[in-house]
User: Fold this.
Amino acid sequence: MNFDFIREALPQVLAAVPVTLEMAVLATIAGWILGILMAVARRNKIPVLSQLCAAFVSFIRGVPMVILLYVSYYALPMIIYSATGIDATSVPAIWYAIAALTLDQAAYSSEVFRAALNSVNRGQLEAAWSVGMTTWQAMRRIVFPQALAVALPNLSGLFVGIIKGTSLAYYVGVYEITATANLLATPGLNFIEAYVITTLIYELISFICNRLFRSAEIRLGRFRPKTAA
Amino acid sequence: MMVSLKNIRKSFGSQQVLNGVDLEIDVGEVVVILGPSGSGKTTLLRTINFLDPGDEGSVTVGNHTVNCKKHSRPDVLQLRRRTAMVFQNYNLFANKTILENVMEGLVTVKRRPKPVAEEISRKMLTRVGLSERFDYYPSALSGGQQQRAGIARALVLEPDVILFDEPTSALDPELVGEVLQTIKGIAETGITMIVVTHEIAFAKEVASRVIYMQDGVIVEQGSPSEILVHPKDPRTQRFLRRITDPSQDPKHIDMREDSPANEKSVPTSA
Ligand SMILES: Nc1ncnc2c1ncn2[C@@H]1O[C@H](COP(=O)(O)OP(=O)(O)O)[C@@H](O)[C@H]1O
Ligand SMILES: [Mg+2]
Assistant:
C-alpha cells in the first residue's frame, strides 16, 4: 500500500466530489419531478400519456445505464441538431450524463411514486372533495405528503444508487470521483490505493445520505402509528 | 326548500342503481334513509355532492341547482361547498392532527385566517367531546373518536346540509352510542341532515322523516311512526321484520332477490 500516493491523491479526489454530487442532485430533482408527473398520469389513467409512460418505464428499465449514457452523449446532440438546428456538441459532457441519469431516475422513481400514491386510500381524497377542496389542493395537502412518507425509504435507495451511478459518467469523460482517481492512479499503477480512496468516499457519502433521508422519514412520518417503525 | 333532487338516475355499467329518485327536503329536516344493502343509499348521498355524478336529473342545494348531465367543475365545487359528508370509514386526513383535520376546510376552502380557523375548530371539537385530543393524529384515536372528529370536520363548515353515510356501521358496538349521541345533539341545533343508518331506535327518536329505499327507488316515506311502526308497503314491513330480528346483522341484509333463502329462519353465519 503506497501511503504517499494516498496522501497526495486524496485531496484531489475529494475535489471531484462536488462534480459527483452536482450530477446526482440535478438528475434526482429533474428525475423525481418527471417521476411524479408520470405516476400521476398513470394513476389517473390519462389516455395515451399513461401508456407512453408505462412504455418509457419498461424501456429504461431494460437498458443498461452505460448504454443510456452513450445514447445520450452521442445521439442527443444529433437529435437536437436535426430538430432545432442548434449545434449542441460544445455542451459539456456532464450535461449529457445528467440527462441520462435523469431518465433513469424518472423511470425508477415513477414506480416508487405510483405505489406510494396508491397506498393513500381514495376515501381521503373523497373527504377532501366533500369539504369543497379542489383536486389539486387535495393532492398537495393530503395525498402527496402521505405518499412521500411512504416513498422515502425507496427514494433513499434510489438516491444512493444514483450517486454510485454517476461513476459511469467516466465513460463519457466526466471527471467525477472515479474518473479522477483512475487518472491519478495510472502513472504509478496505484490502482488498489485509488480504489480504497473511492470506496471510502462513496461509503461516506452514502452514510450521510442515509442519515439525512432517515431523519426526513421520521419527520414526514410523524402521523403514522408508532408501531409501524 | 333546502335540498331538492329531481329524477336522479345512475348506473354503474349495465347495473341501474338509482331509478329516478325525487326528494324534497325542508330546512331543518332530519331525514333518515333506511334500506337493505345494495339498495343505492350510499350512491344517492354521493350524487348529492357529486362524488358520483348522476347520469340524469338535477340536484339543488339552497338556491344552487346543478344538472347531472351537464355539470361544470365550478358548479360541482359550489355544491360541495354547501354540503358536507360524514363517511362510514371516517376518512380523516391521516397526515393531519384532529385539529388540523377540522381546520383544513376553513383554511383552504373558506379562506379563514389560521388563528380564526383554529379557534372555531377548537370550539367544534370541544362540542363533540374531543377537547383533550386536539393534537392527536387519527391513527391514535378510537373509531368513535375518529368519527366524532369527522362530524366536527363536516359541521365546522356550516353546510346547508350534512350527509351521513352509515356513520356508526364501522364502529365497535360499545362505541356506537357516543357517536349517535353526538349526531342527536347536532340534529337538535336545527341543521338539515340526511342520515343513512340501520339504527332504528335512533331514527324513531331523531328523524323528522323516514324514507325506505329499495332497488334504487324510494318505496315509501313519512313520519317515523308511519314508516317504522305502521309501514304500508310489504317490502318495508319485511325489511323491518328482518332488521329487528336480533339474529340478523342489518348491514348484511340483502333483499334484492326475494328468495326463501333470505327469510329470517335461516341463521346467519358469524
Ligand atoms: N363505484 C361503483 N362501481 C360499480 N358498482 C357500484 C359502485 N358503487 C356502488 N355500486 C353498486 O351499486 C349498488 C348500490 O350500492 P350502494 O349505493 O353502495 O348501496 P347501499 O349503500 O344501499 O348499500 C350495489 O349493487 C353496488 O355494488
Ligand atoms: Mg352504503
User: Anything to note?
Assistant: The mean pLDDT of chain A is 92. Chain A is about 80% helix and 0% strand. Chain A touches chain B at residues 120-121, 123-124, 126-134, 137, 141-142, 145-146, 149, 222-225 (CB under 8 Å). The pocket of adenosine-5'-diphosphate (ligand 1) is lined by residues B 12, 17, 35, 37-43 (CB under 6 Å).
